[in-house]
Amino acid sequence: MNLSQIRTALAQAGIRPAKKLGQNFLHDQNLARWIIQQGQITGEDFVLEIGPGLGALSGEIVQRGARLLALEKDARLVDFLREKFADSKCEIRHCDALDFDTRTLFAERNVKVVGNLPYYVASQLLLHFVDFPSRISLGLFMLQDEMARRLSAKPRTADYGALTLRLQLHHHVEYLRKIPRTVFVPQPEVASAIVRFTPRDQSRIEIFDYKFFREIVRHGFSQRRKQLRNLLAPDVVNWEDTARKIRAPLTARAEELSREQWIELANLIAPHDAKPAAQAGPERFPIVDENDREIGTATRPEVHENNFRHRAVHILIFNGIGELLLQKRSPWKDRHPLLWDSSAAGHVEANEQYDETADRELDEELGVAAELRPIGKLQASEKTGQEFIVVYHGEHNGPFRYPSEEISAVEFFPVDIINRWVANKPEDFAPGFLESWRLANANLA
Ligand code: SAM
């Protein structure tokens, strides 16, 4: 849309741009095209647009054949857009984007989030859509230039801070281009810029405890001029030793540490066992015949190397509104790292019965107790990794306390989202969960 088309559209719809909604409309269609080109959007993509306004970016997205879901808070613009895009493959939803349930994005392939963000809520919107665990394959945002510089900042610069690290932890953030005020109507008070987020390879982000990482980074930047050895004194017993391990100067301040050094620092000082529990103990498991009768015991490596039949439990915990808790396996797991899995699961150990294992795993993995009801049993097969699996149902609303060596995150999901997610992207799940969920769907219906 050019300037006069925008003025006409605003007049026809009876709209005076509202400052409190951050309404500055882009009137340079060549620029809108250039922006969308940076997202390499194709017909395979599901694009979520935040704040479509009069549709400058939406039109470019729709033209590329992508499915578009646009979230607009201003009802007057929603009516205008629905008419404008009546014939297109797009949905215009009237809502506050901060209320959008981002869990639904897990069920979609190739999710790209774009938006010329309303500046008054830009950082909340970014955290809402781009935080961990990530659900996007790309993010493309117009932001205030100052914020774009903060998000894409490098260490040892004034722009580098806690928000930089939080968002760069899981994404590469590129500053693409500065945008002058003059391409908007009405003109904003400051210049803008385009930034692009692309997810990093998750298997290389070995963060032990995300919450701790965020806290320590926030603390480190709370007094930028103060040296970390003073600021972190209560958390770090021996700073000389720690600084040497992370290759930082003894006098380092928060802004001097790279993302990798912050990760190392957080992993070193977070309270945790020296060894990941999953690989630590000399656990012995009962090995069984094709009828699940015990024929001996073997260690974990022996069981897996020899493909011995053995026993496991999967526990499905639902909350009061019928949502299922899933866990994201940590990068340190020897099997299926980073995949989504049942609420809790584990091997039956020597001298243990299935029910005992279920109670123990629920306590060890989620830090809670609940009444568990067996809902079925899966036969040992290639699909279950030669495990006989008893699947349990339980109810709990949390909060949960989980060991970071084993679990990166837990989250409740509505059942219909899980079903769509499993159908669209089964590769996101540990195979044992897929089998357990199939059984649960058949038995709980
Ligand atoms: N994308 C359009 C463009 O480039 O011309 C409009 C961008 S304008 C900067 C921001 C848009 O976000 C406005 O249409 C505004 O009504 C909408 N908006 C503001 N707050 C919102 C929120 N919380 N949720 C969804 N949309 C919002």
Report on the architecture of this protein.
There is one protein chain. The protein is an alpha/beta fold and 445 residues long. 31% of the residues lie in helices and 23% in strands. Strand 5, helix 5 and strand 6 form a beta-alpha-beta unit. Helix 2 (29-37) crosses helix 3, helix 7 (162-168) packs antiparallel against helix 8 (210-222) and helix 8 (210-222) packs across helix 11. The chain is globular and about 80 Å long. Residues 274-280 have low confidence and may be disordered.
Keywords:
four-stranded mixed sheet; alpha/beta; 445 residues; Nucleoside Triphosphate Pyrophosphohydrolase; binds S-adenosylmethionine; Rossmann fold; Helicase, Ruva Protein, domain 3; globular; 3 domains
The Rg value, from CA coordinates, equals 25 Å
CATH architecture title of the largest domain: 3-Layer(aba) Sandwich
Backbone structural class? alpha/beta
Integer count of domains? 3
Q: Would you tell me which CATH topology of the largest domain applies?
A: Rossmann fold
Strand content: 15-25%
Q: Would you identify the regions where 5 or more consecutive residues have pLDDT less than 50?
A: 274-280
Secondary structure elements and their pairing?
Elements lengths: L2 H10 L12 E2 L2 H9 L8 E5 L5 H8 L3 E6 L2 H10 L5 E5 L16 E6 L5 H9 L7 E7 H7 L10 H7 L2 E9 L4 E2 L6 E8 L10 H13 L5 H4 L7 H7 L13 H11 L14 E5 L5 E6 H7 L3 E9 L5 E6 L10 E2 L2 E4 L6 H13 L6 E6 L8 E9 L11 E7 L1 H10 L6 H14 L1
Parallel strand pairs: 2-3, 2-5, 3-4, 5-6, 12-17
Antiparallel strand pairs: 1-8, 6-9, 7-9, 10-11, 12-15, 13-14, 13-18, 16-17
Helix pairs in contact: 2-3, 7-8, 8-11
Bound molecules: S-adenosylmethionine.
